[in-house]
Automatic annotation (TrEMBL):
Family, per entry: Belongs to the flagellar radial spoke RSP9 family.
Protein name: Radial spoke head protein 9 homolog
Protein localization: Cell projection, Kinocilium; Cytoplasm, Cytoskeleton, Flagellum axoneme
Entry keyword Transmembrane helix: no
Species the sequence originates in: Apteryx mantelli
Length: 275
């Protein structure tokens, strides 16, 4: 969610039990604008919090002019001092997926890669490295996984230019209440997969400037999202059952929307058996 509207946005998603203490809100309100200035980001989003056993990671994302470009990610242990995370490589994400259990809350904590292939382990040892992964690497890989799986935006809020860059739509005035209650009105803010498999006939009714992402209606497993009306029916809230703790909100007929994650960073692998 946008750092500029953080206090009001947190109040809109507080019904799920997630939130921040007044001290943390005040610290974020002071540090995020400085973060935007120091790193020269065009926009800063507060991504959320991953709770560990001995501490918590507070995550922020910095955006440039092209919203489809990879986002810079930073973490803080106290909402005041921020550290830039390295980009998540495919190998790091694959290794992190094999790790089980809670985060520790210590960026330097090392996990042993017990399920790594023998030849991969030998190669690491030959290069002078141990078959381990630091929690900092697991952190950025988990954020990448969550963003790809459940990072969403309303339809029409972003537009794609003929040159391929993606920008916020200044003409977006919010979804109607009827449209806001449909999963098809929300898109994954990541590289589309299902869209590429559609036939030309299916793409005929799509607007290439706004319908360039995958919608939530075809997410697998079916039923992995809940849609609810809250605050007396003036706020539409979507919650992910796959990544418990991810909450998206949108106030129909306004530009107010965003998502935040408050959880343990663990995927709900039991979801297919719960539906």
């Amino acid at each position: 969610m946008d750092a500029a509207s953080l206090p009001a946005a947190l109040d809109l998603v507080a019904s799920g039990g997630a939130g921040l203490s007044p001290e943390k809100r005040a610290a974020l309100g002071a540090s995020l604008p400085l973060l935007q200035r120091d790193y020269r980001f065009e926009r800063v989003w507060f991504w959320g919090r991953i709770q560990g056993l001995r501490g918590a990671y507070y995550i922020a994302e910095g955006l440039g002019p092209d919203r489809a470009a990879p986002r810079s990610r930073l973490y803080s242990l106290n909402c005041v001092e921020w550290s830039l995370l390295p980009p998540a490589s495919e190998d790091t994400v694959a290794q992190a997926e094999k790790l089980k259990g809670r985060f520790q809350g210590d960026p330097s904590f090392e996990y042993e890669l017990t399920e790594i292939k023998a030849e991969d382990a030998e190669k690491l040892i030959e290069d002078g490295q141990q078959p381990v992964i630091k929690e900092e690497a697991r952190l950025v890989a988990t954020i990448e996984q969550i963003d790809k799986a459940v990072g969403i935006i309303p339809r029409g809020s972003f537009v794609k230019t003929p040159l391929g860059s993606v920008h916020e739509n200044r003409n977006f005035e919010g979804l109607s209440l009827t449209e806001a209650k449909k999963l098809s009105s929300y898109f994954h803010l990541t590289e589309p997969v299902n869209l590429k498999n559609k036939t030309l006939l299916e793409k005929a009714d799509l607007d290439p400037s706004t319908d360039f992402l995958d919608s939530l209606e075809h997410d697998i497993p079916k039923g992995s999202w809940t849609v609810q009306l809250e605050k007396g029916g003036i706020v539409v809230v979507l919650r992910s059952l796959l990544w418990l703790g991810l909450t998206f909100y949108h106030v129909p007929m306004t530009k107010q929307y965003g998502y935040v994650y408050f959880g343990t960073g663990e995927k709900n692998l039991d979801l297919p058996f719960m539906l």
